[in-house]
Amino acid sequence: MSAGGCAFSALVGACVAPRGRNARRGLCAPGMRATARGRCVLRMSGSAEDAAHAARGERAEIQLDRAAALRMHVGVWVGVYKYFDAHGALVKQHRSRLTLECRGAKWLQTNEYMYDDGSREVLNFEGEIGEDGVLRYQVGRVEGEAFGVNVPADAEPGLVVLRWRFVGKNDQNTEIIRFVGERGANGKFERRMRAWQLAENGVATGFVQIVEQRARE
Predict the structure, then answer these.
(1) What's the mean pLDDT in 41-70?
(2) Which superkingdom heads the taxonomic lineage of this protein's source (predicted)?
């Protein structure tokens, strides 16, 4: 305790008096102020208090930007996946159709792959966008997260990074998703490109290039 009857709180980083009638009555010691929760805390200078408010606002803006960048990709995308080994040799390729939906905080995604032999594969993913603006999901043995990158929106809107792994494997997989070209007449970007970087046990195993365009509505 200090002479003023307050103790330093590591949680709020301030000298905090015990909760009581003095704070509720606004009878805090000089240099302190009452909080809404009935505590007396050190009064910061105007510039420090403004900086604290600005920092909180900046964090909220970053979270909003992360989620907004994800939602820009909602829609149906058709394209081609090309798989390369660690030396750059083309291993395989196939066509794709991805349907991305966002209902509130819930993310729904269906990946349909069409192969040259006429076969098809359909994968369904579900996830949720948290309060921090990060999309997290786990489907079967695959778990990961995706988020918009905090760059000025006018510099590169919709830039997204996605990371995923297989449960029980020592793998590191990263995807970068970015729009290409200008917005269409509807205000949406019509083309995008994606790149996977794949690694396992600390060794690069390959990469995947995906070029897509928005399906006609």
Answers:
(1) 56
(2) Eukaryota
